[in-house]
Amino acid sequence: MCGIYLTNIPYEKAVVQEKLKSISFRGPDYTGINKINHLTLGHLRLSILDLDARSHQPFLYEDLSIVFNGEIYNYKDIKKELLQLGYHFKTESDTEVLLIGYKAWGNKVLEKINGMFAFSIYDSTKNKVFSARDRLGVKPFYYYWKNNEFEICSQIRPLLKNKEIDEEAVSIFLDCMFIPSPFTIVKDVFKLPPGNYMEIDLNSNQLNIKEYWNLKDVKIKDISYDDAKAELHELLKNAVKIRLQSDVPIGSFLSGGIDSALVSSIASKISKEPINTFSIGFDDPKYDESKIAEQYAKIIGSNHKTTICSSDDILHLIPKLVEVYDEPFADSSALPSLLLNSVTKKHVTVALSGDGGDESFIGYNHFDSLIKNKAIIDIPYAIRKVLSNTFLLNLFGKNTHRVRNALNTKTRNDFIENIFSRKGFLLNKKRQDYMKHYQGYKKWSNIFLQKAADLNIKLWLENDSNVKVDRASMAYSVEVRSPFLDYRVVEYARSLPMSFRYEKGRQKKILRDVLKEYIPEDVFNQPKRGFAVPIGNWMKNELKDEFLTALNDDFLNKVPNLNVAKFKKLLNEHMEGKDDHTANIWKLYTLSKWYSEFGFLD
Asked: What sort of enzyme, by top EC class, is this (predicted)?
């Protein structure tokens, strides 16, 4: 895992060095900067494959130069194909394979490679830059484009100097706690969407973006459950196997959940030596899954390391959160993710994870909520609107809030979208409709749960889950690989009947049945606690002064489009224990810390 940089702006080398230094945690093993014609290419290397200096980047092959972040898992197969075509290699790296693959096939190389990646290639003969991002957005790709000047980077921090805040992006953040592609927090800087490539013609100063992969219309397989389970098992075995390639120590994250247990179990069978597994536990039993993970480890025979943490261990990471998540990001599970990677780095450089399993195999709690509310949503809206304002709501007791949301939501699609966005809850006026970039979920399937899963993959997975994992791991120079984010697994899961994945409230049914081949069901069939921390309690207790100081009137009045009076009312209700507004307060707190970090409070 690495950091990439490329620009046509004539910066002095010292300026580029400072830019790369600001994100040096992405690649501490080597910093490379090359000036080629009128372009500057920079690279931060975290050495994983072919540790020799011959594989340092920027990497050159004939008239092509590349800066590349990620891993091409099937690079050995592609290398064999290129050898048959007469190409020769000087390294054992996937970087060289990718670059020569582009030489041989142009943009068609993207159809051949299986991996997580963000890269830019400069063709000095054609005077063009070709860039691409992996299918599911595992690796980040930011670019600045204005007045024929551009910069490309793995993180936004090196691109922020002298930039203006994008007020629409702030409003989007307040709605959904992250900023989805193609938007960023500042003007004229964008994210390249997943499954897209970008070409910059430096002769005509034209920038064009094209899609090379996306989710497709769902076609359900005519297959028995047992055959599907066997096929999925084999696919997962291969997805794990190709992610075990490494020239540095490798391990696996192991929580109390199904997904990491299955990945670790498969890895333990494939590996000739006992694998290393890692988990963190908490001194508060409400949040601790470490005992379940230790049971898993004992059964699969891994060398397991559990680190028990206190609330202080988490609290001390808040400054780190602001440092490495250099765009506003309000998923509080980023804190334990940082802690897990800090522990893991002491032992290995590469770790497998179970990320992505919930999206494809219907694992999140909100999928249950959709099923519970489906009957209500299917009542004509005019009738539901009347019911939402009557005494009948009292019949639902503690579920009144959930039912009211269902009664007031116009369509099924609106209900799905409400999972991810508060749609102006904290805003004075309507913000830009960022969902226009994510409307594909409406057409790919007629199945209610599949629609929600597809939006989960396209919106949440890229902009929340993948960002959380990338920044938390890179903060400690750890490379995380998730077999469930193999695009073949995603495509295969979508082709299975919904009843294979979700049946009568049994989430991830088929994964559970595969896991039974490794771990007894009574061991893994325990309540999932999630990767959460008690942020809401900290706000009212040990961090109360910190939060009230950060959320002062001076800051709140600087936030564009924020309904300040409404937010202050929520803040007071939370601090007095009248209601739980943790999510909204945490959003504004992380935004405040970002404003402070990057000098926007002046």
From this structure: ligase
Report d(CA 422, CA 154) in Å as an integer: 29
Q: Name which residue leads in pLDDT, 414 or 75.
A: 75
φ and ψ at 560, to 5 degrees? -65, 135
3-state secondary structure 26-95: HCECEEEEEEECCEEEEEEECCCCCCCHHHCCCEEECCEEEEEEEEECCHHHHHHHHHHCCCCCCCCCHH
How confident is the model over 172-187, as pLDDT tens digits?
Answer: 999 989 999 999 999 9
Using CA atoms, how far apart are residues 270 and 278, in angstroms rounded to an integer? 18
Contact 121, 195 (CB under 8 A): no
The pLDDT value given to residue 202: 96
Average pLDDT over residues 279-287: 79
Residue 390 tokens, joined: 């009557």
**At 197, is the secondary structure helix, strand, or coil?**
strand
Tens-place pLDDT, residues 121-178:
999 999 999 999 999 999 999 999 999 999 999 999 999 988 899 999 999 999 989 9
Q: Contact 197/110 with Cβ under 8 angstroms?
A: yes
CB 181 within 8 A of CB 192: yes
Q: Are 211 and 196 in contact (CB under 8 A)?
A: yes
| Contact between residue 250 and residue 479 where contact means Cβ atoms under 8 Å apart | no
Burial class (CB in 10 A: 0-12, 13-18, 19+), 188: middle
CB 135 within 8 Å of CB 113: no
Q: Where are the domains of the chain?
A: 3-211, 535-597
Q: Buried b vs exposed e over 434-466: b needs ≥16 C-beta within 10 Å?
A: bbeebeebbebbeebbbbbbbbbbbbbbbbbbb
Measure the CA dihedral 321/326/329/332, to 10°. -10
3-211 to CATH, choices 3.60.20.10, 3.40.190.10, 3.30.70.100, 2.60.200.40:
3.60.20.10
Tell me how crowded residue 424 is: count the other CB atoms within 10 A of its CB. Answer: 15
Residues known to be catalytic: 2
Nearest CA to 74 among 245, 214, 189, 191? 245
Q: What is the DSSP secondary structure assignment for residue 166, as one 8-state letter? A: -
Contact 48, 58 (CB under 8 A): no
Whether the CB-CB separation of 546 and 312 falls below 8 Å is answered with no
Q: Which residue has the tokens 């908490």?
A: 282
For residues 13, 15, 18, 22, the Cα torsion angle rounded to the nearest 10 degrees is: -120
pTM over 0.70: yes
User: Helix (H) and strand (E) counts for the chain?
Assistant: 28, 19
**Alpha carbon distance 185, 171 (integer Å):** 10
Residue 137 has φ and ψ, to the nearest 5°, of: 70, 35
- Provide the β-strand partners of residue 66: 59, 121
Q: Distance between CA atoms of 560 and 326, rounded to whole angstroms?
A: 19
In contact, 535 and 580? CB cutoff 8 Å? no
Name the DSSP class of 186: B
